[in-house]
Amino acid sequence: MVAQLRIYTINRGMMASWLQLFYEHIRPLHERLGMPVQNAWVNAERTEFIWVRSFNDREEIEAKEAAYFASPERTALGDQPTRHIAKIEVRVMEEVPATAGVS
């Protein structure tokens, strides 16, 4: 499994509306398209929204992201998501087997 740690700096004063948009539209669409959201957190001091979504492998990321952006649901959102976000940082992480390092 591969996961993305996604850190979004949300524009000041917009966290509440971002959370509503995320939980009403963005997360359900990700789930429907096979990009499960593992969890989400808020770092209020830094206005960061941090979330993790997972994939079977790296190759799946590009295809599923393309499907997301091409979907009618995402198109209907227009620039709502991007208006909330000042900065995006994405880190791809690979799962470590439970037996890693065990001899």
Give a quick set of tags describing it.
Alpha-Beta Plaits; 4 helices; NIPSNAP domain-containing protein; Dimeric_a/b-barrel; NIPSNAP
SSE inventory with pairings:
Blueprint lengths: L1 E9 L4 H18 L4 E7 L4 E8 L2 H13 L1 H6 L2 H5 E10 L9
Antiparallel strand pairs: 1-3, 1-4, 2-3
Protein name: NIPSNAP domain-containing protein
How would you portray this structure in words?
The structure is a single chain. With 103 residues, this protein is of the alpha+beta class. The protein has a single domain (2-94), classed as 2-Layer Sandwich (Alpha-Beta Plaits). It has four helices and four strands, in the order βαββαααβ. It has helices at 15-32, 58-70, 72-77, 80-84; strands at 2-10, 37-43, 48-55, 85-94. It has a four-stranded antiparallel sheet. The longest helix is centred in the N-terminal third of the chain and has 18 residues, at 15-32. The two termini are 23 Å apart. It comes from Candidatus Entotheonella gemina.
Quick synopsis:
Residues 4-97 form the NIPSNAP domain. The protein is α+β, with helices and mostly antiparallel strands. It has four helices and four strands.
